[in-house]
Amino acid sequence: MERLDLDLSRPPPLPGTVEECHRVIEALWRALGEFQQIQARVEELEEQLALGSDNSSQPPSQDSPKKRAERKGKRPTGRKKGAQVGHPRHERALVPAEAVDEVRHYFPHGRCECGGSVAVRGFRPHQVFDLPEIRYRVVEHRVYEGRCGCCGEKHQGRLPDEVPRGQMGPGLVAWIGLMTGRYHLSLREVEALLEEQWGLRFSLGAISQSQIPLQAWLGPVYNQIGEAVRKALIAHADETRHYRGRSIYWLWALTTDQMAYFLTHYSRGKGAAGELLGDFQGILVTDRHGAYNDHPQDSHQYCWAHLIRNLERIAGRKGQAGEDGERLLRAARLTVHYGKLWQQSHYPSDRYRRRLERLKALFRRELEQAAQRHGDNKTGRSCRKLLDDFPRFWTFLDHPGVPMTNNTAERALRPYVIWRKTRFFSQSHRGDCFRPMILSLVETCKRLKIGVYQTLRTICAQGMAEGEVTFRLPLPEPQPLPVASPAG
């Protein structure tokens, strides 16, 4: 580009000829074009700096310190921290008398200072909870042998089927599975905790090997969860990164309010999504990831929380794009507000449904105008993509009972994300298979309010004694969705 050397301390000299005028004008136009490119790049970088968990898919843990302060900032109430005066009391309930392990009695003196006798009329219970002295339990199984006194043939006893062939019993194997799969401890931490708490010493290899049969025993229950989730009327799907060494894999989740099914896969594409969904024919709730779009449009609900984050990003832009983004953002938030009111009314209310239908028409009109106004720039392309996806945002109107957000799946993935951050990655194909199995069992038990350890112990006991696990979780049957009255 030709540069103009101008001294800004005094007026520039006027060009002497027509050719010089044309040359100056062309240079100014080129400078203006370059300035506009620089300005667009600056706006793009400013937008990237402003990205956070509130306007993108970035997790809250990666927010800048400023963003975290803004997110956590609350108006001071002027009250002291802790319980407030007059709040309802919350006390631990007394354990029933038949569940008490030991009772100690403390009586008053039999004679009062005045000389009278004291008659006992009642007592005040004071229960103290404590942990017992922990020690592992060892059972020695002696297998005898002998010889026939007549023919000399050797005879030997045999262990019963319920006796483990290894050195770890079902309780220990279940405990190791609980520590790794539920509480996300590393094998070294499990090794240290075994010695510290129980006085047991096992090598890292022995602890790792104990999970091999557990993985096989978890298979029937894992398959049961997968089959039940795929028969649900409503399910939520999501995915997150899973690492094996330096290779990037993906952990997929298909969940309901009562069940959670996980799957590891090398891909984040439609093939992996199809493997996760299988023969699922219900209503699917997801974010806007295109891998799920082979699911029928009329039974596919997009997450409004993700949509609002996308619109927050548009609203943060300067000029007309920011103004259009603000209008779309207000319409989206009103939709979520009235959608919640409609769901809380259990769907017979025509008033909320009519408002939602009007908001649907308003939202489409605003999107069409913004797409036309901004043409082929970034905001225009975003609005046209939202118009292409438009029907998938309103499935909840045709199928009441369908949530407007994908929080169910995101909550199911959160424990694994923490596990991944604290324990990094798996090292083998066996680890890739074990993690989704143990996560499926743990998350499903949590949602069913079933003890994870007792479930694991039952599975391990059956696997060791019978070689086949017949235990199954009490999974609920699918419930019909409520029927909405048409808008009047």
Automatic annotation (TrEMBL):
Region forming the signal peptide: none
DUF6444 domain mapped to chain residues: 12-92
InterPro entries in alphabetical order: DUF6444, Transposase-related, Transposase_IS66_central
Residue segments, region Disordered: 49-90
Species of origin: Methylomarinovum caldicuralii
Domain Transposase IS66 central: 165-431
Protein name: Transposase, IS66 family
Record field: compositional bias (Basic residues): 68-90
